[in-house]
Fold:
Amino acid sequence: MGRSIINLDNVYENNLGMMAKIAKIVYPNQQFEESFFSELFKGGNDKKKEAYMAQIAYYSEIPVGTIKLLLLQKKKSDSLQKGLHIELLAVLEKYDDHEIKEKLLEYALDECKKNHQHKLFTATRSSDEQLMNWYKEHGFTETGSKGEPVTLSDGTSEETVLLIRELD
Structure:
């Protein structure tokens, strides 16, 4: 059996910049603070340290997508429920039709199972109908709740819609 042309690999400190680059290319109007990426590698003995997971997707050894997840073991608010939160799912437009998003979503679903979580959720910009429809096609439903607003590169903010997928 041949090797898959699409592969996922962990995000390490030395390729964190690639993750950031992909995110900024896919979402050029969204402002990402450096801490959004660097929090993956927080050190120290903080007992309340949050559990992040991240992957970079490669298409024929070219980095083309990324995902960042946050494990929430307790409900923090209506927009941050108990479960696994997709904080970032980004695939370069040229590779959007190569099943890469699906492979990254599969990774998130596997992490839910490994961590005994029954909910996978994300907050998507309300203006991004294409991404919202993609999530709905993959089993997510709108909750009626708003997610945390995102800050755009021009300094304004935009509402987000909370989408959730219940797992067995």
